[in-house]
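Recap for those who missed Tuesday's class. We walked through two folding examples back to back. For each one, the amino acid string is listed first and its predicted structure tokens come directly after. Nothing is annotated here on purpose, so try labeling regions yourself before you check the end of the notes.
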Amino acid sequence: MPETDKSNLRILVLEDEFIIADEIASILEDAGHTVLGPTPTIDSAMSRLEAEAKPDAAIIDANIRGDSSVVVARRLRELQVPFCLCTGYRSGDMASEFGDVAVIQKPVNPADLLATIQSLAGDTDS
């Protein structure tokens, strides 16, 4: 991502479980990033993507209240926003279309989360 300060990224977080969303947001904010959300629904994530400036990256839960977040993943791809999946399950129905996307397992390991974010930002030296 050209011209992006990798130490202060704008990151969309789609996560329907409050405690996990809060944990992810805290990890990102402590590292100096700006969290967009967290958004708890697919509709709220889609609204943010349409109404706000494009995020630098996104972390999306693969399963939101029993529904696949594939529609959000597709929109992120259209907007050319790098993203990763965060899930406590297998990424199942998303694997065929998004098998190249990084997966962060729950419970979230802060070091893994931050390394994945840096990788999404194109900083593979960190």
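Example two. Treat it independently of the first, because the proteins are unrelated.
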Amino acid sequence: MTAEPGNLLLEETAGASPDVHLAARKQRREKHSHYFKPCPFGEIDVYRVLHLFNVTDPCLQHAIKKVLVAGGRGHKDITKDIQEAIDTLRRWQEMRMEERESAK
């Protein structure tokens, strides 16, 4: 498989020079710039991620936190964490419906 012009795939850059990797990374950033935020910190936690991406809705914050650390906190398995995120997102949808209904 060959890369289309302007579309360097990760598999195709394996073993390539650092310049090729930098070009591929630059293409991803340009294509998906909304996924990249400048971060001056050596490490960040979930709350900093939420802040950097301006996630202010409490339901979305909760669901994102669950997904980011799914199964990694020790006392709940990944299935339970993902189900809790789904439940929270369903509640978010319900709240939007409640708001639409009350606006009528």
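Answers for example two:
The chain is about 60% helix and 0% strand.
The CA atoms of residues 19 and 37 lie 22 Å apart.
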